[in-house]
Amino acid sequence: GGRRRGLERAGRALMRKLFLDLETRSTQDLNAVGAIAYARPPSTEILCVRYATEDGPVVGWRGEELRKPKNLEGLEIVAHSAHFERAIYHYILHGRYGWPYLEKPGIWNCTMARAYACGLPDSLEYLGAALGVTIQKDLEGRRVMLQLCTPRYVDPFTDRPVYDEAPEKLE
User: Fold this and answer.
1) Is the pLDDT of residue 95 over 90?
2) b/e map 23-46, b = 16+ CB within 10 Å
3) With contact defined as beta carbons under 8 Å apart, do 27 and 151 qualify?
4) What does the DSSP 8-state code read for residue 120?
5) Is the distance from CB of 145 to CB of 167 less than 8 angstroms?
6) Burial class of residue 155 (count of CB atoms within 10 Å of its CB; 0-12, 13-18, 19+)
7) From the CB of residue 160, how many other CB atoms can be counted at a distance below 10 Å?
8) Is a pLDDT exceeding 80 seen at residue 47?
9) Under 8 Å between Cβ of 76 and 101
10) Residue 144: pLDDT above 60?
11) What is the Cα–Cα distance from 42 to 89, expressed in whole angstroms?
């Protein structure tokens, strides 16, 4: 019971943290279908991956540059809205690209769930302000990401969505 939970918490405290953020797009409406149904179809793709370890810089690459990690053992994965990152990781990074299987209990740490548990706002924009952190959510970056994720139209010959992929927006 309690001793086991205490040992599990102590083990997590010793794990190195990997902060992960995945940006995606899809023909699916995430709010309408939920994270798992959004992550499954072939139309869902990763636009970019950003990550950092506790002691390292933020590193990232675009979806077409996906690199398979060498070793994720012993890492606790921290994400805001981790159920989304976990679904994308499982169905796309693991399922399509062969990244390591990461479904061990306790490996995912959701900062949104922690915020809810403390009675704080769930959005990064308002959570950062509530906590008084110096680095706030990049609202311009969010606006551009939404432009990249929203289909401009559906090609009548291929029946596939056409997205805004202006090179300056992908930087």
Assistant:
1) yes
2) bbbbebebeeeebebbbbeeebbb
3) yes
4) -
5) no
6) exposed
7) 11
8) yes
9) no
10) yes
11) 14
